[in-house]
Amino acid sequence: MLLEVKDLNIEFHDHLIPETVVSDVDLTLSEGEILGLVGESGSGKSMTAHAIAGLLSRHDMKKTGEILFDGKNLLTCPREELRKIQGNDISVIFQEPMTSLNPVKKIGWQTGEALRLHTDLGPEEIKRKVLKMLELVELPDPELVYGQYPHELSGGMRQRVMIASAMICEPKILIADEPTTALDVTIQAQITALLKRFHETRHTAILFISHDLSLIRTLCERVIVMRQGRVVETGTAEEIFRQPKEDYTKLLIEAIPKCERGKSMREIL
Amino acid sequence: MKKRNYNLLLGGIITGIMMVLTLTGFFYTPFDPEKMDAANKLSGISLTHIMGCDNFGRDIFSRVLKGCGTTFTVACGTVLIGTVFGTLIGAFTGYFGGLVDEVLMRIMDALFAFPSLLLALVFVSLFGSGKYHVIIALGIAFVPSFSRIVRGEYMRCRELDYVKSARLSGASHLRIMFVHILPNIFTVLLSSVMIGFNNAVLAEAGLTYLGIGVRPPDASLGEMLSSAQTYLFSAPWYALCTGGTMILMILGFSLMSEGLKKS
Amino acid sequence: MSMILEVSGLNAFYKVRAPGKRKKERHQILHDITFQMEEGEILGLVGESGCGKSTLARTILSMVRDHEGKIQCADAHPQMIFQDPYGSLNPSMKIGNILQEPLRNILKMPASRRQAEAAAMLEKVGLEEKYMDRYPSQLSGGQRQRVCIAASLMLHPGLLIADEPVSALDVTIQAQVLRLLLELKKEMGLSILFISHDLRVVYQLCDHVMIMKEGRIVEQGETDQVYFSPRHEYTRDLLSAAGISRTEEEEESGGRKCTIQQ
Q1: B112 and B144 in contact (C-beta within 8 Å)?
Q2: What are the backbone angles phi and psi of residue B131, rounded to the nearest 5°?
Q3: Do B165 and C92 touch (CB under 8 A)?
């Protein structure tokens, strides 16, 4: 088992009444697995992922439970150790490729940042690795992109850069938080394919978070359905889509618009 | 657990007390603030004169009460002129953009380039000093900064979808500017009004200190502070009490604006 | 059947400042757009971001001044619903007042009648009268989009332009809002120009579809025809990227579901 989350609870204390955003969440991620985390807005899926990535360090929230990775509990381990893991063993891609890259830094610099922090490689070596990586994520002209700024790239290209900088240290776990939601369908398909390829060639475990069930089905082996901070149903993708047990899962699956002759809303209503 | 907004609370209390004192000063002072009494010249703090007396033997507390009123009037007038004209100019330039924006904003830039004190100085030397002239002079000096803030907000808001919906619902430009957008920039405006108020208090003191602001025998905090300077060592309570009052007035408003920003 | 909207030979331009140059350049966004909409039909406009679909909507609503060509709309006050239900309602106005705006500005209706009309419309979109006194921030995303729909229908427009009205909503809410739009269309005889990047959603609603790419319409026709026998390469790309592609043979044999496929 690569990662194990036990009994995770997250509460916010910034209002009159404490607000529970994640309650009693258990999940496991094995090596080289793609795990899908599905839910609507407010289901706590992003919060769970951010907790795993060690990104929840606000003081007005309470976190209990365990996130076990490599024998350490990421919720309680000292910041020093957490920093060693972040970007090196666990890295994250966010939804919004516009804001997740630093607008005043060149692409090459941003992509190599993790290497600079986690390895002792010299600048030459880092540049070589970065260029290799930019090529791996299928950017058309890595040499050119290396010296460009984020605003000079399209949304799809930025997301490729994000993936490149997340994958450069060859992490064991990649957390993808709605990585394709802000992209066009055709680009979406390309990015998904790219992630899948990384998964196959490097055996990276991916925690894929999305509200899009059809996307989850094409990509994930196992699926966790969340609602209002709780896990509703867990199972393999096939089980979840063919024989959903819970009403909420059924509701979600039914809500996917169907494109079959005579079955569209306009014809039924 | 709800976090108390201590800034707002404390600022509100201080401002409340200051307002009560100021209002009292308009109608009642323990002594006549202009009555000189040679026997009490620079007398210290006592039960009858709780802040002591100044170099003419006038009761400082009474003069502080009166002075708060003057300072408050000047600050309010200044901010009022600044806000009204600043909002109008900012709204038109920000909402319409283009040529109107270019022309008006260049004029504002030119105004802004002058230090506000210098501007007031020129105005006062042209039209004479006195409370109302100070208000107008400072008011004009305050217009550019307000219009910049408001303009920025309008430029942001005019691109929002609810403004587009308002246009589709047949609202006129004026209605969109002042009924649809204005309430949404209220918080920004309010906090800049608060800061502007403080700046006005200080600017009035500065002008009076230079001898071109409020003229004696009218009491104002700035005027008192400037005459207290001479007696800083012989009668420190004079400067301390007037300065302290001014600090409290400004502190109250600063805390309140900080608190409003948070809520 | 009479036409509600006829657009022919439409070109639209934006002025953009090219990097490094001081002078703004005139940039053509729409190229020779021609289409018609019948009364009571829902026309889908599909394309990826930046293809000009929102510009087309804005041009029809005469928000883009720099354009050539003919736009003939049978409705004096066509209305629009926007994508983001959080940005399209004025946060400082009560729902009731938002709904009354068009009645007040255009129809100059007295206050008492406005009130009644607004309440009635609110009920039509499935919200109770008590929401009249609420502010947008007190509503959920789905409720807000219902309010947006209500506001756009206050003048009983013939033409409604819906720019990605459900793409910011959760799937379950999405279905409800789409259903509402269909019901209202039937009840009020609306014509809707439905703009979306989501092919599945468009399929649910639209009688006809236009596929747009880089400011040009590359394919238009009846929904089933475009979806199941696309003629243009780009349409095929879009369909397969969305996982809706299937071949003629599959179609004939009843085939597997194309909803979720890999």
Answers
A1: yes
A2: -55, -50
A3: no
Residue A49: count of CB within 10 angstroms of its CB? 20
> Is residue B97 one of the residues assigned to a domain?
yes
CA distance C89 to C93: 8
Q: How far is B255 from chain A (nearest CA, A)?
A: 21
Instruction: Indicate if ipTM > 0.95.
Output: no
Please name the member of C63, C101, C155 whose beta carbon is closest to the beta carbon of B166: C101
**How many domains, chain B?**
1
Largest CA distance in chain C: 62
What SS3 state is found at B17? helix
Strand order in the sheet with C191-196: C79-81, C159-163, C191-196, C42-46, C208-213, C216-222
Q: Structural domain of residue B147, as residue ranges?
A: 7-26+57-253
Predicted confidence (pLDDT) at residue C262 exceeds the cutoff of 50:
no
Residue B152 lies in a domain: yes
CATH number (domain holding residue B108): 1.10.3720.10
The answer to whether position B212 is within a domain reads yes
Residue B207: the pLDDT is: 81
Tell me the chain B residues in contact with residue A15 when contact means C-beta distances shorter than 8 Å.
2
Select from C90, C105, C149 the residue whose CB has the most chain B CBs within 10 Å, as the one to mutate to test that interface: C90
Chains in touch with C (≥3 Cβ pairs < 8 A): A, B
Residues A185, A186, A192, CA angle at the centre, nearest 5°?
85
Structure tokens at A27: 């999940």
Token pair belonging to C143: 């409720």
The pLDDT assigned to B49 comes to: 73
| Residue B1 with chain A: CB contacts under 8 Å | 13, 16
Cα separation, A35 vs A176, in Å, equals 10
Name residue A6's beta-bridge partners.
A66
Binned at pLDDT 50, 70 and 90, residue B170 comes out as confident
List, in sequence order, every residue forming a beta bridge with A91; answer none if it has no partner. A174
Closest Cα in chain A to B4: A16
Residue B88 covered by a domain = yes
Instruction: List chain A pLDDT tens, one digit each, 269 residues.
Output: 889 999 999 988 776 677 888 999 999 999 889 999 999 888 889 889 988 988 887 777 888 899 998 888 888 888 888 888 888 899 999 888 778 888 889 999 999 988 988 888 889 999 999 999 999 898 888 999 999 998 888 888 899 999 999 999 889 999 999 888 888 888 888 889 999 999 999 899 999 999 888 888 888 999 999 999 999 999 999 899 889 999 999 988 888 888 888 778 888 87
- pLDDT of res. C18: 64
Q: Are strands A230-236 and C42-46 parallel, antiparallel or unpaired?
A: unpaired
H or E stretch covering C38: strand C24-38
Q: Which amino acid is at A10?
A: I
Distance from CA of C84 to the nearest CA of B (A): 8
